[in-house]
Here is the input.
Amino acid sequence: MKTSHRFLFAPLSLAAALLGVATSAGATCIEPLSDVGVVGQAAAPALRLPTGWNTFARVKDVDVKDARAFSGFWQFTMVDSLGNLMDFGYRTVNESGRGSGTEFTLSFGHPPIGGNTCIGVWRKTMVAGHYEGSHYAPMYAADHVTFVGTVHRIDEITLSADGQSVSGTFVSTGYDVDGNVLFTRTGESSATRVKVATPFP
Here is the structure.
């Protein structure tokens, strides 16, 4: 899907020194699992989706009266511009009125010790079925204790005609505590709506 966007992840552009800092730190909903190291151990293996992921059956339910509403509960997947799996998990999208709201993401691709949640806001654009999102997450050193900066992710999202799936692009930028850019990553995301009657794969 090609969408007009201002934040399609630019190719990874880091100076060598900054790359060393970024890859030694962990941040929820942003970094590949292989970037999140454990003190005294080698970096974790590449992230892999569990069997059955993204295969939820679509079922008719009264949970969503308006099928085109963005609010709801979603199972998501994120890949970077090179096709590497960056994250997967579940996201709750809440509507606060006037075509905007908040989001809460629980990452299954990052351990809780390194941070596996992020929060954000979203708004509907003038284009039907199109939304913009802005998310923030803390970034820690490999000891999972020392705060080293903040990751800001911007999303461009399009809701499917039946309201049961979304797809889009994102741009993730990491900043140190002084506001200097450490890295920028781009990628694509997709998600499937989860309902009360949706069986687990």
